[in-house]
């Protein structure tokens, strides 16, 4: 089994135009597409779409291929089918390595008024023209895939050469001579293949839990909750489920097993990994500098324009003070605390907790109608991807503690091989990453400070039952109190922790996720407590030791699922995407900010108990 990367160079004749999805310089209606590094490029989706179209045309002309286009290019799911049908052939963008000429040259296009035989009023288009008419330009990219052996790699290269030779033009305005395709080179001298050994020697992992980091090589899009139907807004946080799913897809592609799951039925030696794959926990990957950042707690407040303070340890809320300047005089005025939802800007807080600033890249795409040779109606959509940044790596951890000790060495040997390849095929853009660097986690004990534990969610978690809440109309505090009491029960049924106060936000996750993972039950969106939610938990007297051990377990392995979640959604990835083993329910305990940023009550300020 091999992982292959084939460098491809496309040669086009000018003029060439691949329109950008974002605005260009003033006065230019159609700027040339530029990636996050400022390079002119032809999108990978355009090249892949043209090759898939060429495959269909060649088959229609009587040319036969040994495999189906669905295997290599994927296919669109049918009506009511929510499982993805992805192809195994992946492409990077094709970038022009030379800098464009400055100042930028332009071409002008008009729309004719056929009645007056002149230009229609206002119908003028200014197009960027970085390549002269008749000149040549080369764009380089990579095609990557998993293959059984060298023979399959040779077959793919042969098919790619045939498909590329069928192309005539690329980009916009092809009907008026733009983007004429002159040829392509599959650089055999640059062909990169990595052997994925079928004879893996068992190797003990450095520890039960390992921290790891990786760097994306291309912009990636992990879609957040859809704000609109046609916009996929990318998250800078990569869920553990996405990392785990990417490895599963890589393994199935590598074994040519699109029809089976990652389970004990995989061929040796991967069957051991398949048998225990569901027991491996991946946390979410956060963009990081030198260390992994912290999700800011929702107990932070601001008084006026002052820096954020923390009120998690205050038994009662109070009015603070904001400073006003009037005729050169500074005057303190009573001010209610403003929580995060009311802030206009949280960049200072995110910077304080270690979150880097990342660039975004917006691309508008469409589904192409091969007969009309234009975009299909109502099939326009946009990806907002997160761009890589120098000095920023994504950090997460993998937990093998639930894997049977007798199988852990074989599981780690298989997993180490996959991680050495990187996460290839990540998110909607199928981005690649560099190899994954692993090291043992540094485990620290958990002790209460001044008695309470302050637990801050780092990722979404199941806690309250929304259906039960709707039936009983119980206050949210009572619902959370009951959940924490139930989660902290010891073997005798006695709770070890009691909720004192909380600062939380909730969200509904449905749509595609609700349809795909809830096929066999009535549609109900998932009800999750949001990252940053804070819960102040008091150990029950006489049960302090159990409380400490339980909080430590949650910190190391994630929160347990409440009973109502297991009963309604189950604990399988097929029916529940928000499992602890997919990184959900991660917590931080006793963050220093609760004490270091503790808000000071102004003298004479009014107090009231938390509602």
What features would you highlight for this structure?
611 residues, alpha+beta, Alpha-Beta Plaits, 5-stranded antiparallel beta sheet
- Rg: 28 Å
Largest sheet: 5 strands, antiparallel
Overall 3D shape:
globular
Task: Quickly give the structural class.
Answer: alpha+beta
Question: Share of helix among residues?
Answer: 10-25%
The overall pLDDT, averaged over residues, is 86
- Strand runs, count: 30
How would you sum up this structure, described in words?
- By secondary structure, the chain is an alpha+beta fold.
- The chain is built from 13 helices and 30 strands.
- The strands form 10 sheets. Strands 1, 3, 7, 8 and 9 form a 5-stranded antiparallel beta sheet that branches.
- α1 packs across α3 and α5 (270-276) crosses α7 (408-421).
- It is globular, with a radius of gyration of 28 Å.
- The N and C termini lie far apart (61 Å).
